[in-house]
Amino acid sequence: MSMDSDGDLIDNQLLSRLGWWAFGLVLATVLVYALRGYLGWAVFGVFLYYMARPVARQLRQRGLSESTAAVITLGLVILPFVSILIVLASIAIIQLATLEATDFERIVETLFPDGLPETVPQTEEEVYPFVEDFTTDPTVGSIIEWGSGVLGAFLTAAYNLFITLLFAFFLVRDERRLARWFRSDIVGEGTRVDEFARAIDKGLSSVFFGYTLTILAIMILTGVIYALLNAIAPPGLAIPQVLLLAIVTGLASVIPLVGRSIVYAAVVVYLAVMAIQIGLTALWFPIAFYIIMGVFFDGIIRTYVRPSLSGRMFPTGLVLFAYILGPLAFGWYGIFLGPLLMVVATLFVQTELPRLLHGEAN
């Protein structure tokens, strides 16, 4: 074969490869554009996969098939977990909706006996703007329009949630097959890209499973403790909005060192002011609240619960900013996409950027 023939063959191979790359780029662009509205639900599905994966792997180690393990995990882990999330969100919304302007006024007047600040809402219309809309336009049409919008949003969310559950199910069932395909056909076994992908997988497992389980455990435990404390509280003195406060306490746990302490301090101040109005003997309750929550409970969380569930793979500050800035940047699904991007960016800076800067071989 002549050199011209060899050159033509190489050119044809190069053109063929470039053509396939162009086709793949166009295909990827079309898919990203068509599925862009489902990005949040896809990220949520990845989050559910990492929540369910440890259980599915344990079941497979006990001899169950991949499909059986995935079905059991879907029924015993994913569906109950999603139900808990829905219940917690519903409780928060319901308790916020049932709050009245008098509740805010009573709390603020307790904390500010000299008068309400000008920035504090003092009427129901200021607290709930939609109340004014129904007051000024209480027509059947407006109510039907509002109900249709709520129903449409609910059906859309239910459909997207169903698709997300299916996505998580297939990720759990086919994870080993997908991992083998990715390592053997895409990046190669033992390559640097393979090592980087393994590190990302470990990081997402730490953040999604560990931190989320920690927050959920704190919500449940604090809700139980708050309810028990209210059962022994002096007459006229109680922790307000127990379930909503438990949710806030769990979410505040993402703030390192002081997150839950801020919540405890606010509750202690409120209970102390209320106790002084009832009688000095009632001050034992806010003191007991602080000892139980701020000393014993927080000590258990920091010493045993958080290290065993979330580990120490990433600095707490990075996780904090990922959870806080994610929703601000991307919307509701930013609470899942933010930590994902944080894991990828942090591992890239830690492992790959130094090699690129120092010119190490690939």
TrEMBL record:
Localization, UniProt: Membrane
Cytoplasm in keyword set: no
GO CC terms, sorted: membrane
InterPro entries xref list: AI-2E-like
Ranges that cross the membrane: 20-50, 71-94, 150-172, 208-229, 235-255, 262-281, 287-305, 317-349
Keyword Calcium: no
Membrane topology: Multi-pass membrane protein
Coiled-coil ranges (or none): none
Pfam families: AI-2E_transport (PF01594)
Keywords: Membrane, Plasmid, Transmembrane, Transmembrane helix
PANTHER family: TRANSMEMBRANE PROTEIN (PTHR21716), TRANSMEMBRANE PROTEIN 245 (PTHR21716:SF4)
Family of this protein: Belongs to the autoinducer-2 exporter (AI-2E) (TC 2.A.86) family.
Protein name: AI-2E family transporter
Species the sequence originates in: Natronosalvus rutilus
Taxonomic classification: Archaea, Methanobacteriati, Methanobacteriota, Stenosarchaea group, Halobacteria
